[in-house]
Design goal:
The chain is α+β, with helices and mostly antiparallel strands. The chain contains two helices and four strands. It has a four-stranded antiparallel sheet with strand order 2-3-1-4.
Amino acid sequence: MSSTSHEQHGHWYEIRIQGRLDERWSAWFDDLTLSQEDGTTVLRGHVTDQAALHGLLHKLRDLGLPLLSVTRAEPGPHS
């Protein structure tokens, strides 16, 4: 999908949680990129709509991982 399509449908987000998830969880989180920073995990990527964003947040809640922040982000360099 082109970056133009991403701009028209949804937004990019960074979701920071307390704790560490490795890259194996990426598929479960709709192929968002996962990275670890100082005891936290940052999930980053394109989210198609608010329903999808809420779905991701529900998954984090179900894992019992404390949510630290949700921030709208700029598309990554390879988007």
